[in-house]
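Question thread 4412

I'm putting together a teaching handout and wanted feedback from people who do this every day. The idea is simple: show students a protein as raw sequence, then show them the structure tokens that encode its fold, then repeat with a second protein so they can compare. Below is the first pair exactly as I plan to print it.
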Amino acid sequence: MRRRTREDQSFNKQRRNPYNDYRSRTDDHNRVIPTASIWFPVLTSKLGIKSKRQQELFLVACIAIVLFLWYMTPLSDYCASLILWTVPVESDVALGRESLLSLERKYPQVPDRWGVKSIGSELVKSGRISAEVGRDENHLFDNIHLYHWDFGVVHAPQVVNAFALPGGVVRVTDTLLRVLDLTDGELAALIGHEMGHVLHRHSQKRVVKNRLLTTIWEAFTFDDEDNTIEKSFGQAVGEGLWKSASFLGDMAFSRADEYQADEVAWDILASTYSNYHGQRYIRHYHPRNVRRLLEKLWDFQGGFGSTTWESTHPGTKDRIKALEEKWDKLNFFDKRKFTL
């Protein structure tokens, strides 16, 4: 009789182990099946689509429709705004502080010799008063008091730009301030514009829009191979925001974002003409300074829009025209208010 080797004993021991037998029988059954592979055939069957070829064509058509709606309509903006509506401003503040650390490693803060901080504080005060007394018809400044506003100047050689980070952080490059030689009114317009990006949460919206399709696709094709607990949709969005903290300062805005920020700048400058309450007097900043600021930027660019400002704040020429039309639409009495 052949003597049993150690390998034979090990094999027989493993074979007789009931746990190993159970595990080998159930491994295939415990594998998580992607959700889409379950409900999509059921859906197509309900619709009378039975052949594999027809199901594939239906899937391609659905994806094409979704992509068209996403990129060619305001659907993505509505979805991103709806998601951000559930995110408290306190989260913006924390995200902004994290982004600021990354920004100032690249562009260190320098002393403010141009009055960025003082003008910014005046605009915040004007916006708060407008909200308190009900003069903010568009309700743009309802939450302005919730932000931790922080204005400053950063050293960035050859970079003509300004940065709006979540939570109320606004930074202007010293290069922009030197080469453009802005008046106080034009500087107020610049700061008001960046405040508009903050109040409309444009940075977060861009991240959510970019991550949303990825998150939906990951959920659509989800296959939990390591049997870990699936993350919720909200957690995935939050993780995406934090992952983007390091480059929020360099994020480019859309033309629609720029028009919205111009509107905020116009309205907050206009609010300085009607905010006189006891000792809370605020200097007047004419709203047409928004157009003058953009004209200076456009002239500096040589009429071609080739600077770092245009790379993150597109559509300067069209926005100048839109602001001029906005002024022309005002009646005589509204225009006269800004000249007194």
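The second pair follows. I'd like the answer to focus on this one:
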Amino acid sequence: MERVKWIYNSDIASSNSWGWGEAITLFPSLRRFSLENMSSLEEWVQGMDLGTEGTENVILFPHLEELTILSCPKLKSVPIQRRLTSLLALHICYCDELHNLKEGISASTLLKKLRMWRCDGFISVPKDIGELHSLTYLEISFCPKLISIPEEIFVHLTSLKELRIGFFSEELEEFPGLNSIHHLHASLEYLYLFGWKGLKSLPPQLQYLASLKSFAICFFDGIDDLPEWLGNLSSLQSLRISRCNNLMRLPSMEAMECLLKLQRFEINRCSALAERCTKESGPEWHKIAHIPYVQIEWQCIQH
């Protein structure tokens, strides 16, 4: 289907009409739907939105639970705007002409997993993502033109357990959207943070995430040391640092000793810090010597 440019909901409906005035439900049992590798697809023209009754009395995908849109580089809009009320998971990747999701996703009140990653044209995130109270997994990453995330987005996402976020526009000097992340202090357990060249420090808003168990820090070339507040993450069990080429120093010994539950520490593709953490002889080694599992540049040096 590489040559398909447009999909019309009304065309789907007309091919399945059974009489005037009758409501038509199309694909009533469909649970998963994928659009993948459609290199020419530009638009899903909305005779009606997915999951809604339109002017033609058609209900499309009323029980859809998972929608995947992958490698549709010319797609400009996603038809999910009103009533996909059964949707549990939405994945969008490699859709370079997609600039944003329009408001309306909050109608998918059961949504648990939302992934938007590697969409080069993505510039903003809709405010009503913050109304997805059932969300447990959220990824917004590797969108190099993204400049805006609503600051209040996390206020009501108090079921969120895993967040993958970052690698946005290099014009930004600080992380967008994190001023409300402290509302996740009791729920968030897994955080993958992706930086970019313009960032000079880790976002201080993260220091209040008391339930965080796993923290991965990647692509922060602009920082040379980790902050003291890292020691506030008292539930942390795993700390991974990768692709931070100029990072030289961990927090102080006192801060590292506050991480009483830390069981696993990894450094990969951080040449300067890796050298300074050389077992027994590196100037940073004493800060991690007490951690049960230590991996440096993909090699386990303590277990």
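Top answer:
Good format. For the second protein you could add a caption like this: The CA atoms of residues 28 and 61 lie 6 Å apart. The first strand starts at residue 6 and ends at 8.
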